[in-house]
Amino acid sequence: MKRAIVYLKSLLRSTLLLTSGIILFSGTLYAQKSWISTDDPVTQTITFVTVENGQVMHVIPEWAIKWVKKNYNKYPGVRFQTTGEQVSGNRNFVIAFSFSSNALQGFQPVTHTDTSTSTSPVSANGTVTDNQGNTWDYTMNGTETTTTTTTTQENAPYTINSNTLYLTAYDEQGQVVGQRWHVYSTQSGGNPYSGLGYNLGNALGAIHAKGHLLQNTINGLIGKPNGKK
Q: Residue 81 in contact with residue 48, Cβ under 8 Å?
């Protein structure tokens, strides 16, 4: 990562070179040219790169390309690019995408309930007397069903796999001027009900998370588009 930081500093002072795409857990990365609203002169540049294993590549995830194509017109005078020159005398930034993954293991209590039934023969006999003093004898034969419920608890192993997407912003001096991230996690094993709730909560939290992450990073550098508050 130290080599990557040194490279990013030199990147902000030189012409950008184009590197081929690679595959990461987040999907295919693509090299792309630049996007800018042609009605406005360029006053700022934001260059996107991806850092992996200490190497800096001029590629970005497909979802980021889609976001930029949809939103670049909201930022007049800003050129978004993966390759191109800086604008001398104006503001120039680099946003670096990077990824990390880890796994957490542990145990969760799981309750098991077992139910069993058994039957046994029963018989009875006797005499019944009604209100009039009449009596009669009876005999009964049948079966009796008994249900037994047993509850046991055990600690079941589980694993939480987490993938973190980082967006780190650098200024022209190579200084970090912003960093945001989002963690995507899933649970396997353990208590199935706890796992379902955990995975559902993370899935809901991940909806549009990447787009919001990129938007907030850009807005933190150059302000919100069109004067939005």
A: yes
The DSSP line for 144-156 is EEEEEEEEEEEEE
Q: Candidates 3.40.50, 3.30.2310, 3.30.870, 1.10.1760; correct CATH number of 2-107+160-227?
A: 3.40.50
Q: What is the pLDDT of residues 63-74, one digit of tens each?
A: 898 899 899 888
Please check whether residue 16 is in contact with residue 55, taking contact to mean a CB–CB distance below 8 angstroms. no
How far, in Å, are 125, 145, 148, 224 from residue 119 at the CA level? 20, 4, 11, 75
Q: What integer best gives the mean pLDDT of the chain?
A: 78
Residue ranges of the alpha helices (H) in the chain? 2-11, 62-71, 192-206, 209-222
Q: What is the pTM of this model?
A: 0.67
